[in-house]
Predict the 3D structure of the following.
Amino acid sequence: MTQVAPRRLDTFTLASEPGNERLALARVAGSVQDIGLSDARLERLKTAVAEATMNAIEHGNGNRPEIPVEVAVTQDGDEIIVAITDQGGEVHPGADEQEEPDLIRKLGGDQSPRGWGLFLIRNMVDAMDITTDGQRHTIWLTMRTGGAADDDRM
């Protein structure tokens, strides 16, 4: 079997300004439009990219436009991998450290109304990983192109 090297589809930066998550989702969608994602899976990827980019802008870079958010889109076999990097270092709660959102507890005031981001992202993509290297904090979103049967799970 021939091993195919990962292929970079796009790399770009965005100013850390609220609203730029829309630019990120549009550009990522454009870079993967011919890869074979179903419409439902593409919409889920766009939602995850927008949420991860908002987190990078707000929590990682503190809404400081001079600190860019970096976005890289790669195809590796049947996987699309989107890496979103900010300069927030350990500022972000890890995926395992964050309490699972509970709507009843949130409505009752026992849990902060915030905190849906990583939960939403994790449930929109096939895999989510978070790495920190010094100040560089990266969330890795993986979406498989090959006909997943659970497109309607959300």
Summary: The longest helix spans residues 39-60.
